[in-house]
Write a structure and sequence with these properties.
alpha/beta; 14 helices; single chain; binds zinc ion; five-stranded antiparallel beta sheet; binds (4S)-2,6-dioxohexahydropyrimidine-4-carboxylic acid
Length: 407
């Protein structure tokens, strides 16, 4: 872990014509306002290409990543075609090679077309994918997941699971809690998340396959994962800023608050913070999920699930968890860089991000580079601003205010 602070003069000296390669040391003065961190890593992002370029593109969303200080992302495979064979993956990889401005590592699917009926060509994909996931859907069948883990375990790859038991959903679309009850909405119970996690933990133990739980939202899930870790199961997990900072008491009749899994209740949010503090939760991701304005305009019941996050995640976590004294900056860099790099084997050499921590920013989706504009944090003020992002030694984002700083 390396990060540090500097003042404007030092920042000027670091921005040379040859590029930006600071020697990051923690001995920079803590009172200086410019924070230099390694390029952030987000292992759960939806880029929407190939197949859904009306929602977003690799070009737009990797630029959004850069604007958020993120230089490495893992791309979820709910695409068309889904990356379930090397031929299908090539369609996606060619677009990444052509259009991405930050590092993009694709997931391969666990099952063909994410349909849960037949395993993907796991063997054929293994050299070219970062891990395997059917994100967007849970693998419903236990034997299918067991077979996948038997194959993926010896490859030393990870299965990253979207945990959702369809038979428990009963048409729900927000958390099955106070808000749903009070406003006549159908709820998604927490068991639909923790039951499949409990099943997969057992399978991971049985097969030895490395297992990663996507977007944990419920307190029971945390407890299942905590116990599994104590037993030495090869399991890690992630959660996102919205689950850590919001709960169903924040809900409005607006699809900005609709994602899957849903915002749960206060006790869940507190359990997630506990899970971050005791190491049960390993990393913070966004589940950046851009949709078109029309798809997000149909209210809580009828809109698409998913919110964007790449351009706001670090500053939201800095404001909500570091400034409030819940986490140290060192913890946050671990959660948003070191831990995902280590678990997924990602290298961020010559990737840096500079944040100005001496200003405040109002989150305004109109300013997003992302084609997705739906976020529950619209209008909120955060501490800090991303000034510059460097990926592989190349500047991939330069904030308009940087000129003044360097003047
Ligand atoms: O909110 C979500 N959006 N959850 C998912 O599981 C899928 C994602 C998407 O692809 O839009
Ligand atoms: Zn998911
Ligand atoms: Zn997702």
């Amino acid at each position: 872990m390396r990060y540090g602070f500097c003042n404007a003069d030092e920042l000027k000296r670091l921005c040379t014509e040859d590029g930006f390669f600071p020697v990051l040391r923690e001995s920079f003065s803590l009172s200086d306002r410019y924070l230099i961190v390694p390029g952030l890593v987000d292992v759960h992002v939806h880029l929407r290409e190939p197949g859904f370029s009306y929602k977003a593109t690799i070009a737009t969303e990797t630029r959004a990543a850069a604007r958020g200080g993120v230089t490495a992302i893992c791309a979820m495979p709910n695409l068309n075609p889904t990356p379930d064979t090397p031929e299908h993956l090539k369609v996606q990889q060619d677009l990444i090679d052509r259009d991405a401005v930050v590092r993009v590592y694709p997931y391969g699917t666990i099952t063909m077309g994410e349909m849960g009926q037949e395993l993907s060509d796991l063997e054929g994909l293994k050299e070219q994918v970062i891990a395997f996931s059917d994100d967007g859907k849970g693998v419903q069948n236990e034997d299918m997941m067991r077979a996948a883990m038997h194959k993926v375990g010896p490859m030393r790859k990870i299965i990253a699971a979207h945990c959702e038991e369809n038979s428990l959903l009963r048409g729900g679309y927000i958390h099955d809690g106070e808000y749903a009850k009070a406003h006549g909405h159908r709820g998604i119970c927490s068991e639909s998340e923790w039951a499949p996690i409990a099943r997969d933990v057992k399978l991971s133990k049985e097969t030895g396959c490395a297992y990663h739980v996507c977007h944990v939202s419920a307190k029971e899930s945390i407890e299942v994962i905590r116990r599994a870790k104590a037993e030495g199961v090869n399991v890690t997990c992630e959660t996102g800023p919205h689950y850590l900072l919001l709960d169903d008491s924040c809900l409005q009749e607006d699809a900005r608050f609709k994602m899957n899994p849903p915002l749960r209740d206060k006790s869940d949010r507190e359990a997630l913070i506990e899970g971050i503090l005791d190491g049960t939760i390993d990393m913070i991701v966004t589940d950046h999920a851009p949709h078109s304005a029309e798809e997000k305009s149909r209210g809580l019941e009828k809109s698409a699930m998913g919110v964007v996050g790449l351009e706001t995640s670090f500053l939201l976590m800095y404001t909500g968890l570091v400034k409030t004294g819940i986490l140290t900056l060192k913890d946050l860099v671990r959660l948003m860089h070191d831990a995902p790099c280590e678990r997924f084997g990602i290298d961020t050499e010559d990737d840096y991000t500079v944040f100005d921590l001496g200003v405040q920013t109002v989150i305004d989706p109109k300013e997003f580079v992302s084609m997705g504009k739906s976020t529950p944090f619209a209008g909120q003020t955060v501490d800090g601003r991303c000034l510059m992002t460097v990926c592989r030694g190349k500047t991939v984002y330069c904030d308009e205010t940087l000129k003044e700083v360097l003047a």
